[in-house]
């Protein structure tokens, strides 16, 4: 197995873990606030790591800027998602 294929496989698992953390974070916040916020933050860091090492966003300044803007977009969507979940349960 080549190193590039191996790196893509690791990135794929980082993405899966990050998305799981982003989805589960607000739900865990309902029961255990500090842990849920930590899990959500881990998901945001995981998505940032995924975008940072994805070959599509490597290269010139504008590609890297696009990766950073996508990370910010994911953060805003996560914040809105967390507020909706917490508002539904009035936490």
Summarize this entry quickly.
Helices cover 86% and strands 0% of the residues.
Overview of this structure, please?
- This protein is an all-alpha fold.
- Helix content is 86%, strand content 0%.
- The chain has helices at 3-31, 33-53, 61-88.
- The chain is elongated and about 45 Å long.
- The model has no long low-confidence stretch (mean pLDDT 87).
Present the secondary structure layout.
Blueprint: H1 3-31, H2 33-53, H3 61-88
Helix pairs in contact: 1-2, 1-3, 2-3
Keywords:
91 residues; mainly alpha
Poorly predicted regions are: none
Tell me the helix content: over 70%
**Number of β-strand runs:** 0
By secondary-structure content and strand pairing, the structural class works out as mainly alpha
- Beta-strand percent range: under 5%
Oligomer: single chain
Spatial separation of the terminal alpha carbons = 48 Å
H and E string: HHH
Number of helices: 3
What is the alpha-carbon Rg in Å? 15 Å
How does the overall form come out from the CA principal axes? Answer: elongated
**What does the average pLDDT come to?**
87
Largest sheet: none
């Amino acid at each position: 197995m080549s190193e590039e294929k191996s790196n893509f496989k690791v990135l794929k698992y980082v993405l899966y873990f990050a998305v799981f953390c982003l989805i589960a974070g607000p739900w865990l916040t309902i029961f255990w606030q500090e842990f849920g916020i930590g899990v959500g933050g881990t998901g945001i860091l995981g998505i940032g790591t995924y975008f940072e090492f994805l070959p599509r966003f490597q290269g010139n300044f504008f590609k890297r800027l696009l990766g950073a803007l996508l990370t910010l977009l994911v953060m805003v969507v996560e914040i809105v998602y967390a507020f909706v979940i917490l508002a539904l349960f009035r936490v």
